[in-house]
């Protein structure tokens, strides 16, 4: 073996060693806001009208609205919607000024509660020292995932798992795999996991949820790209780019180098490629309580930038335990973005479950045999039986915390594709639970709160409204014309549109430049025409979130006034 081969071998071994956890013990609340309907609930004054249905028509006629929804005469309740293109706020203002009205409220829509039926979410943990009524997957409720799943079940979201492969025949993974590819120099298939690490990590990200069997992954119904890597720089770079090009919403990297070597330009460029394509990246911090997390974690959150919400390309994830403190084995310092649960009890006299419950390979693997890394780690003794199935294990480490974060990022990106990766990363940090109230070197911006993150993502409207001027007669002899337009403010499914705030009417005369004529909340305006004048019109809609419709490339409507 030449010196170059020996150096590369040491590099790969270092990355594999980082997969194992230090002290590796491998064995057995925000609330979502209801979406709005775009209608107003109006309570009329006693005696204002004998029947609510009549009152609805009368109010609609005078307030510029349309009857909609259901009316409840016994409660003096009518339901109104703005006319097409008009704003909800402006209608509410007009209605509150009407003496026949005693109350105006925005109508909301409830959603069915989702209570996944996976046994691990509710089956009590039996390990000695576990707090009473603690379920096997205790981390899910503690990270507020049930609230996140009320916002999004993860269906359609995709997480790329760059790891040791995964045993995709496992019932937790079988119908969750969108695709698989191997970037391992030994040519082994991505669906073969001789280590056991990738199978466990994959199940924590997107293990089949709400199927009545086993566990639920953090992404509940998300899908995965299983990308097997030998963790060399070229392999990692290739896997990251492949994930981006094949539609990943997030990339999970539960691996890293030992401290010391600077990240290669290849991995730097791959991380930059994913960030430029708005793919959310999460990487495991070190499984040693040190400040240098190695790469890729230190590429996502460089040294000294942890306390700065605006400087990052992803999330460097350390591990917390059930006491909401940093796990004793986990990385710390200025390269930490936030924490997620990677251990139940990491103290020297640890009790309770010896790790995070997840899927495992059917046959023996390197974690069990103790042949992972040089020198080899002792056999993990991690396999456990759940529901008469021996294909599960308890594993602790930052590797287990990271897929909870990457799955959250994927759910957010799929829910609200108008958000950039930088915005999603910041949102996840800002919504984390901070026991200390501020960024700390132990937990970064706090412990992942998936429910708060998804709830906030559903309230951020980044999509501009759209409006169109209705067709006008090509020629007219009248001195004025009424310009009318229609509009809509649509947001991605599951995201609350902020509603149209106002319109701008723009006009060009005789081939000249367009000039803004009016700013209005109405959907029509009367405009004066001079003899022989040729006019073009378009509108620009602006919503309450400040999103501005771009000007069209050509006018929506044209009209010419006849000469005398």
Report on the structure:
By secondary structure, the chain is α/β, with parallel strands linked by helices. The protein contains 13 helices and 22 strands. The protein has helices at 3-19, 52-63, 88-96, 138-142, 145-151, 197-206, 233-245, 265-276, 297-300, 366-369, 398-415, 421-431, 450-458, and strands at 36-44, 65-67, 77-82, 101-108, 158-163, 177-183, 223-229, 250-253, 280-284, 315-320, 338-341, 356-359, 383-386, 389-395, 466-469, 475-476, 480-488, 500-509, 515-520, 524-528, 534-543, 557-561. The strands form five sheets. It has a seven-stranded parallel beta sheet, with helices on both faces. The protein has a five-stranded mixed beta sheet with strand order 16-22-21-18-19, covered by helices on one side. It has a four-stranded antiparallel beta sheet with strand order 2-3-1-4, covered by helices on one side. α8 (265-276) links the parallel β8 and β9 (280-284). α11 (398-415) packs parallel to α13. The longest helix is centred in the C-terminal third of the chain and has 18 residues, at 398-415. The N and C termini lie far apart (96 Å). Mean pLDDT is 90; it is low at 1-32 and 49-54.
Short description, anyone?
The protein has 564 residues and is of the alpha/beta class. It contains 13 helices and 22 strands.
Summarize the helices and strands and which ones pair or pack.
Elements: H1 3-19, E1 36-44, H2 52-63, E2 65-67, E3 77-82, H3 88-96, E4 101-108, H4 138-142, H5 145-151, E5 158-163, E6 177-183, H6 197-206, E7 223-229, H7 233-245, E8 250-253, H8 265-276, E9 280-284, H9 297-300, E10 315-320, E11 338-341, E12 356-359, H10 366-369, E13 383-386, E14 389-395, H11 398-415, H12 421-431, H13 450-458, E15 466-469, E16 475-476, E17 480-488, E18 500-509, E19 515-520, E20 524-528, E21 534-543, E22 557-561
Parallel strand pairs: 5-7, 5-8, 6-7, 8-9, 9-10, 10-11, 16-22
Antiparallel strand pairs: 1-3, 1-4, 2-3, 12-14, 13-14, 15-17, 17-20, 18-19, 18-21, 21-22
Helix pairs in contact: 5-13, 6-11, 7-8, 11-12, 11-13, 12-13
């Amino acid at each position: 073996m030449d010196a170059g081969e020996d150096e590369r071998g040491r590099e790969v071994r270092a990355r594999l060693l980082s997969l194992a956890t230090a002290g590796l013990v491998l064995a057995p609340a925000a609330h979502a806001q209801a979406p709005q309907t775009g209608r107003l609930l109006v309570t009329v004054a006693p005696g204002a009208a004998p029947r609510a249905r009549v009152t609805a028509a009368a109010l609609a006629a005078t307030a510029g609205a349309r009857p909609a929804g259901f009316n409840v005469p016994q409660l003096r309740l009518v339901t109104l919607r703005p006319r097409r293109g008009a704003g909800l706020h402006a209608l509410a203002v007009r209605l509150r000024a009407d003496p026949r009205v005693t109350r105006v409220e925005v109508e909301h829509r409830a959603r069915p509660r989702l209570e996944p039926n996976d046994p691990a979410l509710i089956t009590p943990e039996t390990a000695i020292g576990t707090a009473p009524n603690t379920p096997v997957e205790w981390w899910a409720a503690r990270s507020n995932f049930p609230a996140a799943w009320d916002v999004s079940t993860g269906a359609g979201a995709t997480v790329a798992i760059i790891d040791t492969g995964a045993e995709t025949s496992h019932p937790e993974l079988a119908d969750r795999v969108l695709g698989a590819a191997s970037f391992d120099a030994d040519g082994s298939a991505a669906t073969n996991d001789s280590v056991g690490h990738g199978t466990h990590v994959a199940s924590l990200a997107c293990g089949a949820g709400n199927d009545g069997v086993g566990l639920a992954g953090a992404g509940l119904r998300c899908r995965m790209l299983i990308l097997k890597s030998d963790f060399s720089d070229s392999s990692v770079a290739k896997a990251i780019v492949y994930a981006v090009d094949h539609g990943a919403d997030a990339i999970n990297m539960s691996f890293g180098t030992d401290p010391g070597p600077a990240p290669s330009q290849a991995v730097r460029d791959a991380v930059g490629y994913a960030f430029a394509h708005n793919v959310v990246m999460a990487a495991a911090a070190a499984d040693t309580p040190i400040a240098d997390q190695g790469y890729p974690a230190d590429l996502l959150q460089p040294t000294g930038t942890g306390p700065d919400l605006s400087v990052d390309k992803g999330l460097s994830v350390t591990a917390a335990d059930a006491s909401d403190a940093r796990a004793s084995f986990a990385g710390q310092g200025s390269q930490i973005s936030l924490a997620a649960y990677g251990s139940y009890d990491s103290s020297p006299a640890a009790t309770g479950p010896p790790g995070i419950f997840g899927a495992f390979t059917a046959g023996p693997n390197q974690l069990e045999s103790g042949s992972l890394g040089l020198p080899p780690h002792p056999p993990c003794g991690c396999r456990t039986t759940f529901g008469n199935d021996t294909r599960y294990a308890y594993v602790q480490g930052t590797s287990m915390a990271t897929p909870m974060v990457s799955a959250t990022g994927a759910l957010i990106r799929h829910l609200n594709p108008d958000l950039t990766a930088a915005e999603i990363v910041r949102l996840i940090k800002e919504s984390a639970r901070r026991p200390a109230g501020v960024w700390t070197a132990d937990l970064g911006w706090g412990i992942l709160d998936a429910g708060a993150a998804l709830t906030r993502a559903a309230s951020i409207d980044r999509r501009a409204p759209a409006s169109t001027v209705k067709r006008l007669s090509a020629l007219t002899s009248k001195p004025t014309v009424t310009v009318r337009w229609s509009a809509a403010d649509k947001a991605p499914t599951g995201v609350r549109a902020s509603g149209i705030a106002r319109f701008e009417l723009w006009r060009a005369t005789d081939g000249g430049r367009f000039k803004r004529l009016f700013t209005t909340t109405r959907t029509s305006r009367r405009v004066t025409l001079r003899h022989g004048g040729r006019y073009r019109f378009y509108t620009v809609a602006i919503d309450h979130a400040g999103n501005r419709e771009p000007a069209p490339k050509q006018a929506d409507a044209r009209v010419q006034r006849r000469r005398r």
